[in-house]
User: Which sequence fits this backbone?
């Protein structure tokens, strides 16, 4: 398999794109961990909060979107 084209672009195999729920044109953050390349969904704080609302719990209480936002800004 060819890893990159002449412009350095890489094709992510369909199996991996499906596993990570990556869609054409989506923005991702690219990083490294040692000799590994990492891809992370790029998400702004407001979208993260909207997706997580009601899903996170701390002990017996639900964590509010405002609390999540304040943690994100740290």
Assistant:
């Amino acid at each position: 398999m060819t890893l990159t084209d002449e412009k350095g672009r890489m094709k992510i195999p369909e199996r991996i794109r499906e596993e990570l729920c990556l869609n054409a044109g989506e923005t991702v953050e690219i990083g490294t961990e040692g000799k590994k390349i990492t891809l992370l969904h790029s998400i702004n704080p407001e979208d993260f909060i909207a997706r997580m609302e009601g899903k996170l719990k701390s002990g017996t209480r639900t964590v509010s979107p405002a609390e999540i936002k304040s943690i994100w800004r740290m």
Residues 44-74 form one domain. The two ends are 42 Å apart (CA to CA). The longest helix spans residues 45-52. DSSP finds three helices and four strands in the chain.
